[in-house]
Amino acid sequence: MNVLQSLTAVDIAQLGEAASNHVVHGSFSWAECAKQYSVVFDKVLNHTFGKDRSNNHQ
Amino acid sequence: MTQESKPRVLMLSTSYPVSEGSLSGLFVQSLAGALRKSTVVSVVAPDDSFGETVKTDGLSVVKFRYAPKSMQLLAHSPGGVPAQLRRNKFYYLVLPVFIVSYLFSALRKARSIDLVQANWAFSSIVGFVVKKLFRIPLVTTLRGEDVRPTNGLVSQLLLRFSLWASDAVVVVSEEMRTILLKQYPECADKCVAIMNGVSELFHLAEKPSPIDCSEPLKLVFVGSLIPRKNVAQILTALKCVHDSGVDFIFTVVGDGSELSSLQSLVAELSLGDRVRFLGAVSPLEVASYLGAADVYVSASLHEGRPNSVLEAMSAGCCCVLSDIPGHRELVEGGLVVYFLWMVPCRW
What we know:
By secondary structure, chain A is an all-alpha fold. Chain A has two helices and no strands.
C-alpha cells in the first residue's frame, strides 16, 4: 500500500488543505546558518590561537 | 567587524559552481556568501568540464585542473565524487592527480588564513595536511552521503579519519548527529548540528492557495537522478494513480546517471504524456517550478538534510516523502505530510 497509489480526490483536497496551513519546521536563512558557523569558528580559533584568534605567527 | 579583524577562512569543496551556468554545490556557495559578513572566505574547488569563466560572486575562488578539460568529470556530477567512482572505475586512475592538484591549490591559498573548512569527509584529507603544515584549525562539514549507516569500508574509514583530524565537525541535521554519536560517542564535544539555510528565492510572499481539484494535480521532484533518490518508485506509484483515474502532471527537475532508464520506464508505463523531464535548471527556474506545483514528491532511500524538500516547503508545496529519518526531522512539530511508504520497486 502506498499513499500515492491510493490518491483520491479527497486526498488531494486534504493535501491542498495541508499545504495552505503548513509551517516549515527548522527552516532558516543562510545568514542564520552562517551565524552558527561563526560561533563554531570562534570556538576553534580561540582554542588554537587564544585571545588573539588569528594566525599572526605565520 | 572590519575586514582586518575578520577570521580568514579557506573553504575546500569538491562541489562548487566554478563556472557560469554551473549548478554544482550551490548550497556551498550560499554558505560561503553568507559567511562573508563575519569572515574573509577563499574557496578552492575542482575545475569542471565545460565552463571557462570563474564564477566568483565577489569571493576569492580558485579552481584547480586535474585532467584535460573535457575529461574533468570526477567532481560536479550528480552525487559528486563517490557517485562518479561507483559509476566508472576509470575515475580511480584520475583520483591521485585530483588529490595532488587539490592539495597543491589549497596549500598555495593557505599562506594567510586562520582556519580551514572542508566540505564532505573527502576534503578533510586535504584540510588535514593544510592544518598540520600551517598549524591552523580544521572544521569539517559532513553531509548526507558521509554519515550513511550502509556506507562501505572505504567511506567508513574516511569518516573515522575526518572525525579524528578535525577540531570541530558540523553535520547538517540532528538526525545525522545522533547516528554519528551512536557510533562515535567520543566525538560528542566537537560535533555540532547546523542546518542548511534556504535561499530567499524560495520563500513565499503569501500563503499558498488550496489545490484546485478541477485541474490536473501538479507534482514535482527536484534532485539528482541517481539510485539513492529512488525516482523509479515514484513513477511506479504514479502508474497506479493514473490507472485510478486521477489526472496529474509530474515534473522531474534534475539530471543524473538514471535519466535514460527513467525515461525508458516512463515509456514502458505509458506515462509519456504525464511525466516530463526538464534536466538541470537554474535555482530561479527551480523556484518557479516549485511555486507552480501542488505537491513535492521524494522517495529517497537516504538523506541528510535534503535542501530540495526545505525549498519545496518554503515554496508552499505539500510534500509526499519517503519515511526516512532525514525526512521525518523536517516535518516534526507542525507540517502535515503524507509519507510515501517504502515498497519494493519492480524495475
